[in-house]
């Protein structure tokens, strides 16, 4: 089973590294981490990731996964990236994204009429691609699976593993990687966060980021 993860500059590394750590344990899986030209991509954490290959050397994906990050704004206007995702999706059993990676699926025409999710600060932009937002960490609509922000990619990976190889395999991998979340604080979602915390975070980061993303999306639709 070929699992293809598409990287680009300014990717949020945990959108990628969280799911791939789990998906790489899937029995029979072969992971292909690719970028447009096979060169290292910069993450949002100050280090780079060296992909396995460029798009031209990538086999057909059985599972296609697109992470997010601020680099999505540039990725959705990069026709090489969008075309690659569209072409791979044509033959993939599962088409997936984490966080704002959903907008790359959208740019490739893969979210039209689909239920989907992404990071909470950007969900209002999903209808621009013809998608219907569903308030969940992981949303399934046929063979399209979208995950919310960042850490929800791990939940997505486990749900996908269960769909492919059964719940026992997923539970075994979850135990092997000791995924038993017990955060020291509540408030990891809108529903459980203080209004002041949400207001401040939107004002400091996400109002501007979402506005810039909207401009980028409207430039291509």
Secondary structure blueprint with pairings:
Blueprint (H helix, E strand, L loop, with lengths): L1 E5 L6 H11 L6 E6 L5 E2 L5 E2 L3 E2 L8 E4 L5 H4 L3 H13 L2 E5 L3 H6 L7 E2 L15 E2 L4 E4 L2 E4 L4 H14 L1 H10 L18 H24 L3
Parallel strand pairs: 1-2, 1-6, 2-5, 6-7, 7-11, 8-9
Antiparallel strand pairs: 3-4, 10-11
> How many helices?
7
Q: Report, as a whole number of angstroms, the end-to-end distance.
A: 33 Å
Q: Do you know the CATH architecture?
A: 3-Layer(aba) Sandwich
Helix % is 25-40%
Summarize the biggest pleated sheet.
Answer: 7 strands, mixed
Total tally of structural domains: 1
Structural class: alpha/beta
Task: Provide the CATH topology.
Answer: Rossmann fold
The string of secondary-structure elements, in order, is EHEEEEEHHEHEEEEHHH
Proportion of strand residues: 15-25%
Radius of gyration: 16 Å
Task: State the fourth-level CATH superfamily.
Answer: Class I glutamine amidotransferase (GATase) domain
Low-confidence stretches: none
* CATH class categorisation: Alpha Beta
Neighbour order of strands in the largest sheet: 5-2-1-6-7-11-10
Mean pLDDT: 97
Number of strands: 11
General form = globular
């Amino acid at each position: 089973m070929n699992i293809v993860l598409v990287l680009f500059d300014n990717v949020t590394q945990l959108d990628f590294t969280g799911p791939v750590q789990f998906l790489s344990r899937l029995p029979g899986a072969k992971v292909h981490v690719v970028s447009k030209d096979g060169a290292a991509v910069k993450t949002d954490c100050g280090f780079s990731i060296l992909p396995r290959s460029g798009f031209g050397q990538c086999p057909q994906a059985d599972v296609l996964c697109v992470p997010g990050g601020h680099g999505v704004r540039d990725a959705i206007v990069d026709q090489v990236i969008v075309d690659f995702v569209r072409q791979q999706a044509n033959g993939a059993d599962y088409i997936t994204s984490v966080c704002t990676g959903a907008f790359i699926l959208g740019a490739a025409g893969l979210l039209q009429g689909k239920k989907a999710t992404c990071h909470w600060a950007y969900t209002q932009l999903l209808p621009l691609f013809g998608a219907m937002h569903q308030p969940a960490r992981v949303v399934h609509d046929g063979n399209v699976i979208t995950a919310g922000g960042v850490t929800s990619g791990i939940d997505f990976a486990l749900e996908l593993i269960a769909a492919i190889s059964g719940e026992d395999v997923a539970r075994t991998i979850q135990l092997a990687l000791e995924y038993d979340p017990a955060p020291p604080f509540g408030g990891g979602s809108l529903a459980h966060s203080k209004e002041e915390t949400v207001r401040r975070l939107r004002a400091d980061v996400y109002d501007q980021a979402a506005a810039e993303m909207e401009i980028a999306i409207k430039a291509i639709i």
